[in-house]
């Protein structure tokens, strides 16, 4: 039987990594995030600290990248 993952759209307000922390707090198995403002094309580039925080949040959750869906 296939595994069913339960997730939700989570806000990235304050940083992408906080969406992972919120999903874990809610007991979710996966999440969907808007990777940028859906109403405009322009977006600021990610900085190294944001990438590190994202990677650390994934590791702390015990997740790999397949548990996150980008909605952009």
| Helix and strand composition category | alpha/beta
Distance between the termini: 31 Å
Task: Give me the side-by-side strand order of the main sheet.
Answer: 1-2-3
- Amount of beta strand: 15-25%
Low-confidence stretches: none
Would you list the SSEs in sequence order as H and E?
EHEHE
The average pLDDT is 86
Shape: globular
Helix content: 25-40%
Describe this structure in words.
- This protein has 72 residues and is of the alpha/beta class.
- It has one domain.
- It contains two helices and three strands; from the N terminus they run βαβαβ.
- It has helices at 16-25, 48-61; strands spanning 7-9, 30-34, 68-71.
- The chain has a three-stranded parallel beta sheet, covered by helices on one side.
- It is globular.
- The N and C termini lie far apart (31 Å).
- The mean pLDDT is 86.
Entry keywords:
72 residues; alpha/beta
Quick synopsis:
This protein has helices spanning 16-25, 48-61; strands spanning 7-9, 30-34, 68-71. With 72 residues, it is an alpha/beta fold.
Topology summary:
Layout: E1 7-9, H1 16-25, E2 30-34, H2 48-61, E3 68-71
Parallel strand pairs: 1-2, 2-3
Helix pairs in contact: 1-2
């Amino acid at each position: 039987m296939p595994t069913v993952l339960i997730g939700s759209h989570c806000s990235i307000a304050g940083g992408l990594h906080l969406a992972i922390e919120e999903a874990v707090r809610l007991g979710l198995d996966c999440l969907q995030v808007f990777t940028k403002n859906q109403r405009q094309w322009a977006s600021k580039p990610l900085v190294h600290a944001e990438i590190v925080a994202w990677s650390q949040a994934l590791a702390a959750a015990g997740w790999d990248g397949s548990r996150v869906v980008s909605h952009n």
